[in-house]
## 1
Amino acid sequence: MTVSRSLPHEYFVLDVNSNLGPVVAVIDGRQARASVVDMNGRRYSFAGVAGRDENGRLDVTSLRRGQWIVAPNLVYEQA
């Protein structure tokens, strides 16, 4: 996936309806659950932490197809 750095990261943020499963990581005091469900009922699995570019912005170019950011900087991918 090629994404311009000029696109706001908000275009890649998943609107989560619920968190499911066990806590798989604690990152900056925030619990990352094994999976989340979006507002349309689609399920996503925890994939890691979003990187930041040289300016401190979320680096959306590092996301692969089907990956989304769950605020503030967790990455989930469609299960």
## 2
Amino acid sequence: MTKTALTDAYLRKLKPTGKSQTISDAAMTGLRARISAKGKISFALQARDASNELKTVTLGQYPEMSLKQARDEAARRRLELKAGVDVTAEKRRKRAAVQGAKDAPTLRELLREYEAAFGEKKVWAPAGPKTERTQAGRVVERVFEPLLDKPVLTIKVEAFAKCVNNYKPVRLTEEKKSANGQASKARAYLAPLLDWAAGRKSYAKLGAGRVPKLEVASLDAVHDPATTDPSITGMRKRVLTQVELEKILPLLKYPAPQIGGMKIDAAQDFRPIALRFMLYTAARREEVVAMRWRDLDRKNCVWRKPSVKSTKGGARGQDLPLSGAAIDILRSLPGWDQGKPEELVFPNSVGGKLGNWTRIQTAIYEETGTSDWNRHDLRRTAATLMKELHVPLSEVERILAHKEPLQAENLGGAASHYLHVTKIMTNSRDPQEEALSRLADAFELIEAGAETASDVP
């Protein structure tokens, strides 16, 4: 084997000989320059490992790897061999990691997986009866659009951060001068998705995360732009006024009012009456939309919600005693006598879940001259009015179902086996039903044009 003090000039002058040859570097023990029959040059190291076995480690191709880089790499690999590191196995592991990254799902594919796995959550369920796209998925796709078709294992946290902090709104308005709210939402939606894929945090227990796990980036270190945006105040405080309610309530009826050029048959449009039911029960839109006739306990006049939004812990239900006015709303619907248990109480025209709320709300805006209120503001209005009517705040909280009621009363979970919302004494009234009855009376006075809701007994 030829032994030469290698230089770049020497390597550049080497010509193909039709035969392969190996040149040993006189300046770095064990470093070899291999020249193929066609003149391609590569570097390798021959050195003994911790067991005194002679090993050969391929280092790289010349000129992509310079001579200096080859000598530095040879020195490092020699030390690793002496320390007992299996250099060849390590290289195989790195090659497998690179191949694994290529075979990994793209961010878009992982997003579809998560939507399928968590479709029972409102934001990850299809946004309407005619689409498979989800509310959260749309936001993630808009903000992280440059990364959607990249293998998720190749996306570094810096790339996620760049998308979040550089996202621009689709259209600028005077009221909305930044897209930090959307970027913040996208970050909040994507963070648990990545944790699920990696089996981190709440998904660390066996069976909770994705199988197999993926070594994906975490968004913990990504700045939330909403926290430093003075235009984003966080909590919405919109409550409808008495004057607004006087205008709106007469339109919340069944059959639906003919406003806004609606083409749907009034007898098939349950959106306005569903809005009234939201006001009378302080319920969330998604709870009303998902209500089925089997959920109504007619004997005890209780709406037994199978699932309510929970900020802590797992899914739970709620038993809500209904006022007589709320029962009258249900009694006015054709499903009261004809509906099957599995059918929706407030269906769309083909029996599915109600949607296209923006259109009916815009029509009500135009008809009443009101603006800037949404469905959740009805729930907030109902709760605020109950407080104004001096309903104990503990009862308002129970109606809103933000917390598990037994925990709120410092009771153990076993109490749920003994405490049920049902009537034993025919002349008894549940405090929640009393509160909702006072609320309904107030709405009826407002609708009738009363000067003040304080006339409610």
